[in-house]
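question for whoever is on the cluster today: can someone run the full assembly for these? two chains, 553 residues total. i dont have access anymore since they changed the login thing
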Amino acid sequence: MSALSARSLRKSYGELEVVSGIDLEVQNGECFGLLGPNGAGKTTTLRLCLGLTRPDGGSIELLGEPVPARAREARARVGVVPQFDNLDPDFTVTENLVVYGRYFGIPTKSIQARIPGLLEFAGLAGRGDAGLQTLSGGMKRRLTLARALVNDPQLVFMDEPTTGLDPQARHLIWERMRRLTGEGKTLVLTTHFMEEAERLCHRLAIMDRGRIIAQGSPRALIAEHIEPQVVEVHGSGYEIWAERARTLCPRVERVGDTVFCYAGDVEPILSSLSGDKDLAYLHRPANLEDVFLKLTGRDLRD
Amino acid sequence: MSLRWIAVWRRNVLVWRKLMAAAVLSNLADPLIMLLGLGYGLGGLMPAIEGMSFIAFFAAGSLCSATMFTASFESMFSGFSRMHGQKTWDAILYAPLVIDDVVAGEIVWAASKAWLTGSTILAVVAVLGLAASPLALLALPVAFLVGLAFSAVGLVMTVLAKGWDFFSFYMTLVMTPMMMISGVFFPAERLPAPLLAVAKVLPLYHGVELVRPLMSGSWPGGAALHLLVLLGYAAAGYGMAIVFARRRFSA
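^ ran it for u. tokens below:
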């Protein structure tokens, strides 16, 4: 049985269809990523799956419960890390966890017994009595993660969990997320960071304009949608060089003052560059970001 | 709805306990200064009203209006801050609660806080010897009911509000005039008939009509009707708050 499945899910706000018939299947114990530019419908999809918003069409099953009909029962076994922290500013770290646990009907004593473990997990050991104002942004994010685990959930939704964090804090969150999947929990993650998705997600779906436009493991998506090698070129005279590059490599893209060359074999490109002092280049393997930009386009989104 | 609303209520109790000094001061100092200042100062110049001293008359009005203000401020300003500013309601809704539970927890909490204001004023009034009858104890449940009515109506304003300014309309156009025509400072029967008719469809009038006789030791006339009106406001307010809150949160 899958942890989460959605069929033909639709949701409109007024004239605008935000989610236009998507199908999702998240297996137990995997980290599943939902990627997409701003406004792609990721957060609305999460809200639909949690039963916080009624779909206009389609069906959802979360941990075996039909949603929204039995969303309350499903949410009892689910954790949520929202995009924006909404911790209780008047409470200490511990009070935040105790009060949140009560929403799940967990007796205060049982919550208190779980707190040292949760604080250790969040890297907040010894900070239980700290007021919320004294915590850094990264610490608040980790406390939000601990709060999402207070009911020992089987599945955790994480909406952009590392947005705005410094690299240290981000790596700690990633390490904890791997620990959670190691413990058999299912994670459903939305993110803009392709590196994050590539590192953590077993499978992912790329969403754009309310639809899923690609789905699979990060490696499979790269193999399927993009040439394995990339050369990025910029510097004076790049326009003229770009015209030559089109004869040397199957796919060339110009974005601003940079030329992207995608190919299986980049030797002709590299040798054409080797004599040119004005052009700087970077040769690297193709990654998920290349796939993402190819599929969703390079236009700015609001 | 489920009993999970109690967890919402307990959350607010915990915040209140942590910030108690400021909360108690603002909810009690104002009405007590008004009661003592107007009651003894202005009241010393005034003849007896309905057979009682002005301060004894005003005590019941003061209890009800202070309860109204506490309930309204808590459900509107503090409620809006939790709902809109801190996004506390969003966090609660990830848990196995629905918006109906949150609305119920908020209303009962604001009524509890209002009850605390009302009952403290009753205690002060009793110490001053202005509520000697044991019947005055029945003002306690009435104060809770007044609190529920105003919390429920206040929360309707909260779930409709787009910003803080919205509450000024309700306070200036509804609460202040209501306080003037509901028999808080002078007998409502002295009002022109149309104004009295307006007062009689508003909840504060009915709270005052219950509390004043109870404080002076007599059974209020038409008690059932007064209770029904207060209960009606509480129930209708809860119902409307749920409808608008669902619209706001589960769209």
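summary bc i know u wont read the tokens: DSSP finds ten helices and no strands in chain B. The first helix of chain B runs from residue 5 to 18.
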